[in-house]
Amino acid sequence: MSRKSKGNPRFAALRAKSPLFWAKLVVIFSITGYLAWLSFIHAVANVTWQQNPDMALSYVPDHPLALSRKADELFAEKQDPATLAKVEAMAKESLRGGALNPVAIRLLGYVADVRGDQKKARELMLLSQKVSRRDFGTQLWLIEDAVARGDKKQALYHYDIAMRTTPSSFPVLLPTLVGALSDPEVRVALVPHIKAAPGWLPAFLGQAIGTIDSPANLADVLVKAGGLTERDEYRGLSNALLTQLAAKGQFAAFREYYLSLRRSKVATFASAAFTKDTVNLRYPVAGWQITENPAFGGTFSQANKDGRHSLSAFVGTGERGELMRKHMFLKPGNYRFMARHSSQEASPDAEVKWEMQCLSATGSIAKWAVATPLRKGSFVTAQDFSIGTECLNQLLMLQVAGGSGQLGAEFIVRSVEITRR
Question: Alpha-carbon distance 80 to 65, whole Å?
């Protein structure tokens, strides 16, 4: 008897399905595939809209962010009537897909501005700012609008927002803000922003100190703001500002700014003695500054029980130059300078030379100079002098000469004093 073959029961079950089942299955697979495709094209658009809006729009023609990005590019290229109409249409289409799009709102404001409708442009820009304070284009327009209206306080308000939210704006905004410091009204309006110590402040200070024509204008703002905190970065910036003030001959601002700093003392500028008020200061430019030179140099000792230091110095054979300097602000009157030195060995032709100059914005004029041969043992340099109203800013310097000895010269400055007569 022959054996009957049996088919696969699974296939048999499928063959038994009704046409309606297969129709439903086709619909399900079609919908799933369509949703997968939509997910794919939107994923591509979401990734590429910022760098390549054309690609994003080729996948999703109504992608809101890609539309606004492309419209932004078109507006930047030209603003003829046809382009403005296209930008406006794309911005509106973008808003239909995403109402909270500050770029699209800003572009509508740009279009209104170009067409001469300032009121509408300002309303749209303020609306764009309400939606997001991070859109740099909006803040830049509001800055320019405030400047055009002469509202410097409002312009600085938008400067602050732009730089707080968009650090990439620094190269664009900081040079202009630094240039505006020449305006006294801007300096006054800037004070509350400086007091708030925003994140952009160090960058602003660095830009200003490195490029400003008159560092006294920056010092004026900082003094009015009550000074900077004692963070390390601010301490370095303050010292750099003091250096620039001295280099530009703005000595009144130099003195005022230093005395506005925490823990500064008037005695720093009135005394030449080696004490805590003049040596190893938090802001070295205000105190004794030793020249960095491999041919000659010096080191201050630890303070003795009286709180005074001494200076151990050396200078190479045949070398000559300025060993150290200090800015002074002595009041008009009669004075006596005295410096005490000592050396273990004499050195042929070696000498120490103390010199005082009167400083001004136009240059320096020698007030007095006295040279003393470097001798073995103790030796003193002294000089009587008078200060008048024409010499309110002084610079005291120590010049050294190493002489002709084979080993150069070494000596100690035991003390320096300037006393009234």
Answer: 23
CA–CA distance from 124 to each of 80, 108, 232, 310 (Å)? Answer: 21, 7, 43, 69
Going by pLDDT thresholds of 50, 70 and 90, the confidence category of residue 44 is very low
Determine the Cα–Cα distance for residues 363 and 229; give it in Å rounded to an integer: 33
pTM tops 0.85, yes or no: no
220: which 2 tokens? 């004026």
Residue carrying the six token digits 């900082």? 222
Model confidence pLDDT, tens digit, residues 182-205: 999 999 999 999 999 999 999 999
Cα torsion angle, 79, 85, 88, 94, sign: negative
Of 351, 357, 386, the C-alpha closest to 369 is 357
Q: What is the pLDDT of residues 206-218, one digit of tens each?
A: 999 999 999 999 9
**Beta bridge mates, 398:** 324, 354
Q: How high is the pLDDT of residue 17?
A: 65
> Strand order in 320-328's β-sheet?
289-290, 320-328, 394-401, 351-360, 363-373
